[in-house]
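Assemble and predict.
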Amino acid sequence: MEAIRHVGSGTPLQEHALRPLIGAGKGFYLLVTALVLIIGLGVFAYFTQLRDGLYVTGMRDRVTWGLYIALFVFFIGASMGGTFISAVLRVASVPWRTPITRAAELITVSALIMAAVFILFDMGRPDRFLNLFLYGRWESPLIWDVYGLTTYLVGSIIYLYAALVPDLAICRDQLGPLVSAPKRWFFNNFSIGWHGTPQQHRTLRRVLTLMMILIIPVAVMMHTVTSWIFAMTLREPWDSPMFGIYFVAGAIFSGTGIVIILIAILRKAYGLESYITPKHFLYLGYLLAAFSAIMIFFNVNETLVHAYKMKGHIGEHFISLFRGDLAPAFYLYLVGGLLVPILIILVPFTRRVSGIIVAAVLANIGMIIERYLIVVGGLHVPLNPYEVPTYTPSWVELSLTAAGFAAFALIIVLLLKLVPSVAVWEIEEEEEEGQAAEAGGRLVARAPAGGQS
Amino acid sequence: MIRTALTSLAIGAVIALSLVGAASAQEKGTKLVLSLPKEASVGDRVPLVATLQDEAGNPVPGATLSFVAEMTFLNVTNEVLLGRARTDQAGQATFSYAPRRQGETGVMVRFAGMSGYAETEANSPMDIHGGPQQYNEPTPFRIPGANVWTAAGILAVVWGLFLFALFQLINISRQGAGQAAERG
């Protein structure tokens, strides 16, 4: 803390936000070690899968998609929370979003990277990854998803970076001699000569305005196209025109939950209680509750419409969901993942920071289960007259799942050692505007009636 | 250092291309002789027979031939693999095909090459007569512009806007450099 004050005129906000970039404590190293160990287990599992083939998973000829695709869809959904908080609330000029946009943007980029990684896990021959681009069939929703994911990832990176530029300049100016040479190089070069001139501000505003508007339809497109991978097949449980909006709503739901979890961790770890306040949790909690209600509506609508017609083999799907092997997971998702979060947020006694965090965790567990039910449940309905297949994830899939989540956390942890955890420049700008508005109001109040001096 | 690396890459590429060229030069040319029926009816199984020979007219046994037809979906025409068959000692491969839609269709047989033999392909048209259709007829109505090229166009616009954003970021850097020069 003293060191920062020696370098420049760091404000209290800068001290809190920049301090983690200078060094790392025991906690950081313990956390990174734990995450790397879990990833190491995943590497071993992946090596086993590469050597022996996808046979080491629980997937077979009838249930051809499993945990990997479910988690791919989950991580695509998780990225939406970041886009929603950062872009949609920015477009709406919602003032309370400023301290949490950075966390949201980091989640978007990390989640999209992990979504792509889970696709690689699902490919038995990852060396053929380039074939998706070289020989991909334009008529296939899978290829639409490949191009959509690439577009969304690139757009999210541009958006994250543009909003980072002034903060990297603050790091360059404040932290120069206090950080290692590679970090110094990073701050010096990636701040791209930002000096906060009016011209630079105008240009940056132009970029941020363009990206915050553009990233919203790109995100909605991405989630809709992901849903089309399922909805455009001939499987009856997936045969629903509602899948697009269902996936978008689920994405905002789970994404908001992940943002709540991350800002809770940042708030505690970096002492950001003055900037990430209970108000943020409350508003995000209301958002979570609203989208939980929307998800319940979509589930009821889809179930009723299918059940009313009972077309084809949909009855077998319902037996599987309501009474069969998928029933425990289905009820856990409905009650634990959708109903309980709403109750927690609506009941005043539980509507506090800790309660909202619990609601967010339950929401995300519920959404992982929901993605699993969509993928595996849909494949349970046989297309030919054979018995209903079963699927149980193997140790390889479970290890890679754990490794995937560990890698997601590790990306964010490492990025937070490179960039401030809150958008310092935006918060300071807002504070200055607030002070200027207040001062302007006091001047007006001091002027005597009639305009006499 | 960069120059050295580029030179090494160029030399490596030349060596690799030479090796590939040398390997190709040792391959014998091949040709496909097709015995495909000129006509068929929807639903009838017809044998598609193809004979693979080298340039001297000798049969090429043990080669995998791909039987491919062109299909159109979402206004995009592309190849659909009907099936594969291996050539016997007489260099002949037979694939049993049951056409599902009437009209003129082109069937192509392709040999992708194997050690010592170069790739080749041949095609032959087939006129499929009407019969009970084996699938639901596609709707005769097409929404104008609803095809993958529209999607590709939208994607191109989005990427164009990304490029514009990147150029604006480069502008910020230039503006900063300009200001630093003024101060200096």
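The CA atoms of residues 1 and 12 of chain A lie 9 Å apart.
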